[in-house]
User: What shape does this take?
Amino acid sequence: MTEETTRPPRHDSPAPDRPRVLVLRALGLGDLLTVVPALRALRRRFPAYETVLAAPERLTGPALATGLVDRLLPASAPGRAVPSGLPWPGPPPDLAVDLHGNGPPSHLLLQRLRPRRLLAYAHPDTPGIEGPAWRDDEHERDRWCRLLSWYGIDADPADVRIPSPATPSPAPGAVVVHPGADAGARRWPPERFAAVARGLVAHGHKVMVTAGAGEETTARYVASHAGLPADAVLGGAADVPFDRLTAVVAHARCVIVGDTGLAHLATALGTPSVVLFGPVAPRLWGPPADPRHRALWHPDTDDASRPGDAHGTQPDERLLRITPEEVLAAVGSLPEPDQSRFPAPLTDFPARESVAGRVRPPFPGRAAP
Assistant: This one.
């Protein structure tokens, strides 16, 4: 583990004797995790600076857990809008970095703080910023690393890992099924998640269903229709504390999830995943090319990378083309798990019939007898 990822995080008052870099990324968990490579690049380039992240207060735990942020400055707005202001204390930041977007609102928000230097993409309505040109068709990790590279700060989009938690997992070795998503367009039907969970149980897998705040009804539907006990659901009435959620994902056999924050958490922890995509192509928001991760997506032949509304209220038609049988097959294609990742011993189970009536191996990469 590198030195910058082990530095104890600060979350109290500003450091009076240190220069400060302010990073604006007032979005969600997945958005935060996609800029981990950029945050690591800033930490390496400015090791003496206090790094302050302007983001929603509920991301305090995740931000500090990266080991790349010293303090969180609460900042949020409805949807994906730019906050109207920042409660920045003390003198202007020595460096401000716009990792939020490409419009004048985020540029001007940071300019009002009068930073000694501002790093951002160029825009005709903020001509004083001489940054690189914005590209719509670019992966989110690549986008922000390219911004920093343009300013002479080396950044590697593949540098996505965050430290594993010290918290023990309540379900080591479980397959984590996460049916929730912030928007209906990225929410695969719960009955299909239930069919997948039922198929996993038939193969002898331990299954845990995770849920964010407000997703309890969906999670309990999936669990009950998969024949799982009530204690197989984690979260729902409120968000799962981040240290516990991270422990569950870090010690999971794999994660089955839509295009949402938990998918990025699996990537950041190196946990195998099967991610279901609909309105946005995986090449813009998907996991890196790695045999541990499978991205499922069924676009039309003439589709662009963003053929649908990622924030729509109804499941995207491309997402609905993914079947439970396909998800189970993707789980079966994942590499053999590293048994040392699981604190408790695992039990081998005989292969059984899947929901499609086909024999699948009891765990990814293991041949069925």
In short: Residues 190-202 form the longest helix (13 residues). Residues 1-12, 345-369 have pLDDT under 50 and may be disordered. The first strand starts at residue 20 and ends at 24. The two ends are 40 Å apart (CA to CA).
